[in-house]
Design a protein that fits this description.
This protein is an all-beta fold. It has two domains: 287 residues, Immunoglobulins (Immunoglobulin-like); 133 residues, Immunoglobulin-like (Sandwich), CATH 2.60.40. Helices cover 1% and strands 42% of the residues. The chain contains one helix and 36 strands. The chain has an eight-stranded mixed β-sheet. Strands 23, 25, 26, 28, 29 and 32 form a six-stranded antiparallel β-sheet that branches. A hairpin with a 2-residue loop joins strand 6 and strand 7. The longest helix is centred in the N-terminal third of the chain and has 4 residues. The two termini are 23 Å apart.
Length: 452
């Protein structure tokens, strides 16, 4: 059996994929925009040749962004290389990406939101392609009494183009470059929407405030905002009425003694009940995962030589996932084995896990129903187990229960691969699968090249 997802010495996404620093993670379907900040480590002298992303969230990176100068802050499908730092034979490249999305479908009435994985691909001039697939949650923007329970939670808009004001445009607060530490007062724009305000007097129908915070790359608070800060905002319901927006005051990282680096601007919209009590429809400011990221700042940014640890939510520290090596699938029914690499990050043997693998839509790929787990012993791949799973009725999701990841002590490594075929009508081009293992965040698989 041929396997392509070989285990490497270094499995952090910066080395073989793209490490996501931050992205526009949650917004309403009114605001179909993409914002992304990422970092990757490459051989010395290698440069970015091309950046693409998935316009429809379907696994097809069909939009190519053009490179513009650092700090430009444009409004089109563009990327900027924020920093290039050399360390002992390799370079660290940090970039920011922006563009439009076609994910503007109202989730109502059945759903509070829809989730999309937006494939980002970076092609390097040495022929290598790196990938990341950050997830965004697209919220319902309106509400009535017949909608499901969580439809109608308050949200903040994701400013785009020049609609909200600010210089040079409304979205300049994402990927903002500040070499002095000063950020002008027109960069962070808050426009608070509460869909339930159309029916005053109903639970959660009143909103007049948000909390905001700037946090370091690792999630720790900035000195500028040691705790989430209360900000008064006028909640409303009208998509076209931007008169309620507010702009946060200027800030200065240098004045407050903050360290240089990357900062996320996070906001938690709040809601109140008719009796004045806080509503559980508001977003929990003590939980960073509930924040809306609507901005970011690079303050005197320079990547260091060490791989920065990815913040790990509670209960998710047993192992890390990263994409395996690329595979090529021919449209003749042959089987190949894309997958993910797994590394133990805690002591003690990792318990058996549930594995779910999802196919991209419309690419003409097919599961056989078989998963493969193996390890590297010296330079040789050794298969440990090959459990069968269950394929969903639409053929897109393979689920396998009780998978032994073959991980023991901290630092031990294995790979989880899936048998995959390209049908005769498969669409040529690059794509990937999405792997969920246990309660870890999802990871992209190996890059899959579908050939003619």
């Amino acid at each position: 059996m041929t396997t392509a997802a070989t285990v490497r010495d270094t499995t952090h996404p910066e080395w073989q994929g793209i490490h996501t620093l931050g992205h526009a993670n949650r917004f309403s379907w009114w605001d179909s925009e993409f914002r992304y900040d990422g970092r990757l480590r490459v051989p010395s002298g290698v440069r970015i040749k091309e950046v693409r992303y998935s316009f429809r969230g379907d696994g097809n990176p069909d939009v190519r962004a053009r490179e513009v100068t650092r700090g430009r802050g444009g409004i089109d499908q563009e990327y900027e290389v924020i920093d290039r730092t050399s360390h002992d034979g390799y370079d660290v490249l940090t970039f920011t990406l922006r563009g439009d999305l076609d994910v503007d479908r109202d989730p109502r009435p059945q759903n509070a939101s829809l989730r999309y994985r937006i494939l980002v691909t970076v092609k390097l001039d040495n022929g290598e392609t790196r990938i990341a697939d950050p997830e965004i949650e697209v919220l319902a923007a309106t509400w009535d009494r017949n909608d499901s329970a969580l439809v109608g939670r308050p949200f903040v808009r994701l400013p785009y183009d020049r609609n909200w004001g600010g210089e040079p445009n409304s979205q300049a607060g994402f990927g903002y470059v500040s070499d002095s530490g000063y950020v002008p007062g027109d960069k962070f724009i808050v426009d608070l929407i509460n869909p339930r305000a159309v029916l005053p007097g109903t639970p959660g129908s009143y909103s007049d405030r948000v909390y905001y915070q700037l946090v370091h790359e690792d999630g720790t608070p900035s000195r500028e905002t040691p705790e989430p800060q209360l900000w008064k905002a006028d909640g409303h319901t009208d998509r076209g009425d931007l008169s309620h927006k507010t702009m946060l005051p200027s800030l200065n990282f240098s004045r407050n003694g903050d360290k240089p680096g990357y900062y996320r601007f996070l906001v938690w919209p709040q809601a109140g009940n008719p009796d004045g009590s806080p509503s559980n429809l508001g977003w929990d400011r003590t939980n960073i995962e509930e924040a809306f990221q609507i901005g970011s700042v690079y303050y005197q940014y320079k990547a260091n030589g060490e791989v920065s640890p990815t913040p790990v939510p509670p209960g998710q520290g047993q192992f890390l996932l990263s994409p395996g090596g690329p595979v090529t699938l021919h449209r003749n029914g042959e089987i190949q084995y894309p997958g993910v690499e797994v590394e133990a990050t805690g002591d003690g043997r990792v318990a058996p896990q549930t594995v779910s693998v999802t196919l991209p839509q419309g690419k003409g790929l097919r599961f056989t129903g078989r998963l493969v787990v193996g390890v590297m012993q010296g330079a040789q791949w050794v298969q440990k187990e090959a459990p069968d799973g269950t394929v969903s009725s639409d053929g897109r999701v393979l689920t396998v229960q009780g998978v032994n990841l073959e991980l023991g002590a901290k630092g031990s490594k294995s790979a989880v691969l899936v048998e995959l075929q390209a049908l005769a009508n498969a669409v040529p081009g690059d794509t990937s699968l999405s792997f969920l293992i246990g309660n870890q965040p999802a990871s992209s698989s190996s890059l899959i090249r579908i050939s003619q």
